[in-house]
Write a structure and sequence with these properties.
212 residues; alpha/beta; Rossmann fold; nine-stranded mixed beta sheet; 6 helices; 32% helix
Length: 212
């Protein structure tokens, strides 16, 4: 995998502990869904480190003080449908005030390339810090397409949050979108011939929504 200052692997014991639960084949759907959300919350703490902030005056029971807060309407979270929805609540648990967009992609059966079938983004998203969330970064095809859609809307500050990533997908995003920061909970070994991540955790969308 190419070295890039924009790739951050969040090697934290709490995250690693939760990723282990996701990998287990016998983890039930409800626990898998809750764990994905929990990991997203932990990842958000690091990924939000340099979001836009402002100073406000706060009155405590004793006096008035100045406090730093996240700037209003400065953050948007955009899950890639459908698996990305599993991470949405976790990020919102860390910062409920975030605006929300959605991007839907499917594979064209002739070209095998991702094509957008749905894109609904908040007004003014081009001026926000945009967090694209998807549990898996495999080939990077869908992620790259989603990033292009955001850039076409004028977005400049884009960060990706992926729980499991393959080196092939990371390399593609670094090459095609070198300005995008990538936060990963676990970097796995490789893709198999069917483009599944190894060791991976199977199909995240099916395991989140119980459609195995």
């Amino acid at each position: 995998m190419e070295n890039s200052p924009n790739v951050r692997i969040l090697d934290h014991p709490l995250i690693s502990h939760k990723v282990a639960a996701l990998r287990r084949a016998d983890t039930p759907c409800w626990e898998f869904r809750e764990t994905v959300s929990g990991i997203a919350s932990l990842m958000a703490y690091e990924a939000f480190r340099d979001v836009p902030t402002e100073k406000v005056e706060v009155r405590t029971p004793l006096e008035t003080c100045t406090q730093t807060v996240v700037k209003e309407d400065s953050v948007a979270v955009v899950p890639i449908l459908r698996a990305g929805l599993g991470m949405l609540d976790g990020v919102l648990r860390a910062y409920p005030q975030a605006r929300i967009g959605h991007i839907g992609l499917r594979r064209d059966e002739e070209t095998h390339e991702p094509e957008g079938y749905y894109c609904r983004l908040p007004a003014g998203i081009e001026d926000m810090a945009v967090f694209v969330v998807d549990p898996m970064l495999a080939t990077g095809g869908s992620a790259s397409a989603a990033l292009r859609m955001l850039k076409e809307r004028g977005c400049r500050d884009i960060r990706m949050l992926n729980i499991i990533a393959a080196p092939e997908g990371v390399d593609r995003i670094v090459k095609e979108h070198p300005d995008v920061r990538i936060y990963i909970a676990a970097l796995d070994r490789c893709l198999n011939r069917n483009a599944y991540i190894l060791p991976g955790l199977g199909d995240a969308g099916d395991r989140i929504f119980g459609t195995l």
